[in-house]
Amino acid sequence: KQLKISYLKQIQKTIKKTARREQLMREEAEQKRLKTVLELQFILDKLGTSGVPVLTEEELTMLDEFYKLVYPERDMNMR
Protein backbone atom coordinates (compact mmCIF):
# COMPACT_ATOMS: atom_id res chain seq x y z
CA LYS A 1 0.00 0.00 0.00
CA GLN A 2 2.87 2.40 0.83
CA LEU A 3 4.40 1.68 -2.58
CA LYS A 4 1.10 2.55 -4.27
CA ILE A 5 0.87 5.87 -2.38
CA SER A 6 4.47 6.68 -3.28
CA TYR A 7 3.79 5.84 -6.92
CA LEU A 8 0.67 8.03 -7.01
CA LYS A 9 2.57 10.93 -5.44
CA GLN A 10 5.27 10.57 -8.09
CA ILE A 11 2.65 10.63 -10.84
CA GLN A 12 1.03 13.71 -9.31
CA LYS A 13 4.42 15.46 -9.12
CA THR A 14 5.13 14.61 -12.77
CA ILE A 15 1.74 15.95 -13.84
CA LYS A 16 2.36 19.21 -11.98
CA LYS A 17 5.83 19.59 -13.53
CA THR A 18 4.42 18.98 -17.00
CA ALA A 19 1.62 21.50 -16.47
CA ARG A 20 4.11 24.10 -15.22
CA ARG A 21 6.42 23.48 -18.18
CA GLU A 22 3.51 23.85 -20.61
CA GLN A 23 2.44 27.08 -18.89
CA LEU A 24 5.98 28.47 -19.19
CA MET A 25 6.05 27.58 -22.88
CA ARG A 26 2.73 29.38 -23.45
CA GLU A 27 4.02 32.43 -21.57
CA GLU A 28 7.25 32.48 -23.60
CA ALA A 29 5.29 32.26 -26.86
CA GLU A 30 3.03 35.11 -25.73
CA GLN A 31 6.06 37.22 -24.78
CA LYS A 32 7.62 36.65 -28.20
CA ARG A 33 4.36 37.57 -29.90
CA LEU A 34 4.02 40.69 -27.77
CA LYS A 35 7.62 41.68 -28.49
CA THR A 36 6.96 41.42 -32.22
CA VAL A 37 3.78 43.48 -31.92
CA LEU A 38 5.59 46.17 -29.93
CA GLU A 39 8.41 46.28 -32.49
CA LEU A 40 5.89 46.66 -35.31
CA GLN A 41 4.03 49.37 -33.39
CA PHE A 42 7.30 51.23 -32.89
CA ILE A 43 8.06 51.03 -36.61
CA LEU A 44 4.56 52.22 -37.50
CA ASP A 45 4.88 55.13 -35.07
CA LYS A 46 8.16 56.18 -36.71
CA LEU A 47 6.83 56.21 -40.28
CA GLY A 48 6.99 59.68 -41.77
CA THR A 49 9.46 61.04 -39.20
CA SER A 50 13.23 61.40 -39.12
CA GLY A 51 13.68 61.41 -42.89
CA VAL A 52 11.61 58.29 -43.53
CA PRO A 53 10.01 58.47 -47.01
CA VAL A 54 6.40 59.62 -47.28
CA LEU A 55 4.00 56.86 -48.32
CA THR A 56 1.46 56.86 -51.13
CA GLU A 57 -2.29 56.79 -50.47
CA GLU A 58 -2.41 53.09 -51.40
CA GLU A 59 0.45 52.28 -49.03
CA LEU A 60 -1.26 54.20 -46.25
CA THR A 61 -4.46 52.24 -46.84
CA MET A 62 -2.52 48.98 -46.62
CA LEU A 63 -0.89 50.21 -43.40
CA ASP A 64 -4.31 51.09 -41.99
CA GLU A 65 -5.41 47.51 -42.59
CA PHE A 66 -2.20 46.23 -41.04
CA TYR A 67 -2.72 48.56 -38.06
CA LYS A 68 -6.08 46.91 -37.40
CA LEU A 69 -4.28 43.58 -37.14
CA VAL A 70 -1.54 44.92 -34.87
CA TYR A 71 -3.88 46.91 -32.64
CA PRO A 72 -6.92 44.63 -32.44
CA GLU A 73 -10.00 45.87 -30.66
CA ARG A 74 -10.12 44.36 -27.22
CA ASP A 75 -13.09 42.65 -25.72
CA MET A 76 -13.15 44.12 -22.23
CA ASN A 77 -15.12 41.08 -21.01
CA MET A 78 -12.11 38.86 -21.71
CA ARG A 79 -9.11 38.77 -19.49
Features:
79 residues, mainly alpha, 0% strand, CAPR1 protein, Caprin, Caprin-1_dimer, RNA binding
Q: Which overall shape is indicated by the principal axes computed on the Cα atoms? A: rod-shaped
Rg measurement, Å: 23 Å
Instruction: Bin the strand percentage.
Output: under 5%
Tally of domains: 1
- List how many beta strands DSSP finds: 0
Instruction: Give the helix tally.
Output: 2
H/E element order: HH
- The structure class reads mainly alpha
Helix content: over 70%
Low-confidence stretches: none
Ends distance = 44 Å
Average pLDDT works out at 84
Major sheet: none
Organism: Semnornis frantzii
GO cellular component, one term: cytoplasm
GO molecular function: RNA binding
Family: Belongs to the caprin family.
Quick structural overview:
The chain has 79 residues and is mainly alpha-helical. The chain has two helices and no strands.
